[in-house]
């Protein structure tokens, strides 16, 4: 089977995973409140059950992300996570007591930890310019599950029979239904999912094949040596040796790096592929690489994106938790009405994702982010005014409620897609499994959100007021960090490898971008250029924002960044 067919089947399977997660959410959430009431659970148990699902996802996400980073595989992780989903949903079906139901959501939540590995896989398997579109499509699959999930509830609420000692009714049927769906998905992953090689590796493989064909047609040994040196050079100048985003490289380190390359060149060793002997400089580079992983998540733009992940999900889950008690209190909604409400909300979210899918082709992610945050602010302020103390007739109160939910559902896709895509671009590709860190921050929000919303349904001013304050704080953070929310443009994994420095290059030939628009550039590696006459005008400085092309020594993405700023 060719690569393109494998890729299509793999991406289709990923879409099914997110589709089923959306179906599970839409099938269980409308009924879990009354299910707990039949088990004589107190009111706060609703928040506990929803938080338990997120808690296990919070703990499992980084572990599975680390596993994915180490092994560069995701299929085994997905199969393991599906087993937890199957067990958890069958426990939900059995019921018995409120504690069994709580444990079932705890186990099922472990299955959501596969998401960090999947996002890391998508990052490695897609081009940077296509990533926002791919993420939007994947998230839209989950929202499609939210859309069609309530339709299943229309039929599941009619169930009323026994399977041995187990009762199948409108409350337990969702667990049985989802258990069967996850078994079906397990078979799909086994037969239709492949761990595809990263994009860069495929480019390297293609280059190697071309070199082999050239060798067959009679290239000389000297040309062969040049090919070997060309293939080895990116390994010797990789981001892992010099450091990753956020680590500082001085001019002296650039010289050390150059001298290391010279000492390990083919002319100084028996084999060009021989591993270099460890030196104090290598130890320094290794320590810089280790420490930069922690520093990576303390940079301004990363902190803003993690804060956005926490605040938006905290507000969303708090509102979702209070929705079913509010509809029961003010409108006497039951399972069918709640399912229709979630179905209509899914329609709005799907429309939002389609809009983001189109908009991401015309504007940058930070613009999409700002639009979504605007919708979220309007939604929360509306809820503070009308949800805390509804007034008017039944029809007017229902209209107030619908508008608030509509605005919240509309803003979610903008923020979700933008912050996921930006996070993948401002962090190093070699740690994309650390999407688990981002998802864990979101998991913490989905733990605290239901607890906050479930415990304050009778104190709406306090509950919604804190949510508004958090959104205002995030808006201020976005305003101050807006210029930093761009993809770093430098000679790293996203760009072509720079030309090697000549022997006459000095420390002055290491250009360390550090001012103006070039603050976006990570200082992990310097950009060497030996022929300084390539700069056509002294006025084309980094501060001016109008730097002119510097020849083949600078990669195309970097030139586009300089000219665009």
Can you tell me about this structure?
By secondary structure, the chain is mainly α. The protein folds into 2 domains: about 5-195 and about 295-485, Growth Hormone, Chain: A (Up-down Bundle), CATH 1.20.1250; about 505-565, no CATH class. Helix content is about 70%, strand content about 0%. A hairpin with a 2-residue loop joins strand 1 and strand 2. The two termini are about 45 Å apart.
Q: What Rg do the Cα atoms give? A: 27 Å
Annotation, overall tally of beta strands: 4
Strand content: under 5%
Structural class: mainly alpha
Q: What is the H-and-E element order?
A: HHHHHHEEHHHHHHHHHHHHEEH
Give the terminus-to-terminus CA distance.
44 Å
Low-confidence stretches: 218-281, 492-565
Give the helix level as a range of percent: 55-70%
Shape: globular
What CATH architecture of the largest domain do you see? Up-down Bundle
Q: Averaged pLDDT, please?
A: 71
The CATH topology assignment of the largest domain is Growth Hormone, Chain: A
- What's the domain count? 2
Largest sheet: 2 strands, antiparallel
**In the CATH hierarchy, what is the class of the largest domain?**
Mainly Alpha
- How are strands sequenced across the largest beta sheet? 1-2
- Annotation field: number of helices: 19
Keywords: Membrane, Transmembrane, Transmembrane helix
InterPro entries: MFS, MFS_dom, MFS_Domain-Containing_Protein, MFS_trans_sf, Tet-R_TetA/multi-R_MdtG-like
Domain Major facilitator superfamily (MFS) profile: 10-483
Subcellular location: Membrane
